[in-house]
Automatic annotation (TrEMBL):
PANTHER family: CENP-V_GFA DOMAIN-CONTAINING PROTEIN-RELATED, GFA DOMAIN-CONTAINING PROTEIN. This is GFA family protein. The lineage of its organism: Bacteria, Pseudomonadati, Pseudomonadota, Alphaproteobacteria, Rhodobacterales. PROSITE patterns: CENP_V_GFA. InterPro entries: CENP-V/GFA (IPR006913), Mss4-like_sf (IPR011057). Residues 2-116 form the CENP-V/GFA domain. It comes from Pukyongiella litopenaei. GO terms for molecular function: carbon-sulfur lyase activity; metal ion binding. The keyword Lyase applies. Keywords: Lyase, Metal-binding, Zinc. Belongs to the Gfa family.
Amino acid sequence: MRKGSCLCGGISFEIDGEMNPPTACHCSQCRRQSGHVWASAVVAQDALTLTAQDTLRWYRASTTASRGFCGTCGSFLFWKHDDEDTISVALGSIDPPTGLALARHIFVADKGDYYDITDGLPQRAQ
């Protein structure tokens, strides 16, 4: 069982299930919303239980996906594709120890010009 929350605590959650190996996303949307790289892990949606959600807001980021964030503190917590029964959860919102380790980078063709990726993990251009 993992637990997590936004910065102000208006959104809190529990994850009772396996999480896929975490990914760092460098796409322009994730960088703009998070302020840098967004690291997340995918979990089955029915494994995620919201224990507090009064401040949860959803932003329609594209025609196929939405991003969940806290309307009070602005924490970007979730990414949900419309046609999938999974949800990506921000690694930084999960209470330690997470027991997770970053596995790969995606959308590296869109990464910011102010940093390099030098950790040796697999990189996918898109």
